[in-house]
Amino acid sequence: MVNNALIFGIVTVASIIISLFLDRKKTFQGIKKGFKMFFNIVPPFLNILIVVSILLYLVPQDTIIRYLGPGSGMFGFFIAAIIGSITLIPGPISYPIASTLISKGASYSVVAVFITTLMLVGIVTLPLEIKYFGKKAAIIRNVLNFIAAIIMGILIGRLM
Amino acid sequence: MKKLIKEYIWVIAFILFSIIAYLLGFNPGIKIYSNFWMFFIEMLVFIPFLFILVGLFDVWVPKESIEKHIGKESGIKGMVLVIFLAMLQAGPLYGAFPVAYILFKKGASVRNVFIYLGAFSSMKIPMLGIEIGYLGLEFTILRTLISLPLFILIGFIMEKILGSKFEVKNPKETEKQKI
Hints:
Radius of gyration of chain A: 19 Å
Order of helices and strands of chain B: HHHHHHHHHH
Largest interface: A-B, 76 and 73 residues
Number of strands of chain B: 0
Largest sheet of chain B: none
Distance between the termini of chain B: 18 Å
Number of helices of chain A: 7
Strand content of chain A: under 5%
Helix content of chain B: over 70%
Largest sheet of chain A: none
Structural class of chain B: mainly alpha
Structural class of chain A: mainly alpha
Number of strands of chain A: 0
Oligomer: heterodimer
Order of helices and strands of chain A: HHHHHHH
Low-confidence stretches of chain B: none
Strand content of chain B: under 5%
Low-confidence stretches of chain A: none
Distance between the termini of chain A: 28 Å
Helix content of chain A: over 70%
Number of domains of chain A: 2
Shape of chain B: globular
Radius of gyration of chain B: 20 Å
């Protein structure tokens, strides 16, 4: 994650320098616009982080691994889809959980549905998504992606 | 000032809660706070950069070129282009929303906006790297190959359902309209 951030930072700084070189006024205008957009979403953003922090405390990794582990079957699949949809667990945490699950003998289909719902469906971030896309589009997008994640889980279970 | 307090009410409450938890040695509170801090750092290292890039993109990239390349008439080439753009990015899904906004504002089609979100959430190269490391190449390739047609299909469905009235908004503008 730190590496990604570093690359991201370098790209940003390089862009700013090139932009400054081409047109100072435009550059400041762009940065100002960017910051304005950023500060607009800081409050809903921080609220989401608070909710996620509490959720992550209430549902610790051990619990996730216990419920999604080997022999959890349909129930595990279902729970994986629900946990994945509600929360937002960043990659650096969710992938280690997924790999622990596999090494403990959980099925690939449970892991796939967990990973994909985490990536594609976000109930916690829904309020923010609604601010950008409106209620209708945000809800439909999440529902369609939930269905896609279920299909993905089933297919990967069959193929691996 | 009053408005500012109202906007940050949960944040203020959370900070107070964390301080009290720390003073009393209330473990759950301390744990929650450390989770928060981790997410906050993640946000802090990515998001400001992202918004600067979005802002620069806004002033430099002309609407015509976005319209031409990923607009309504862009076809398969447009799809490939947005998927490629999404793959180059990093960070959590909420970071994709402002980019989707700027792409839409510059004339990207509804379909391509949602294909962008799909590709962003499931095909980012930095994330694929982590995924290969933890879950193996076979799983990662399989998952990517299955998700690709699914999120393209979702793009088409979203376009069909939402129609031409749909728009992506900048959050503050939405609030102003309410008032």
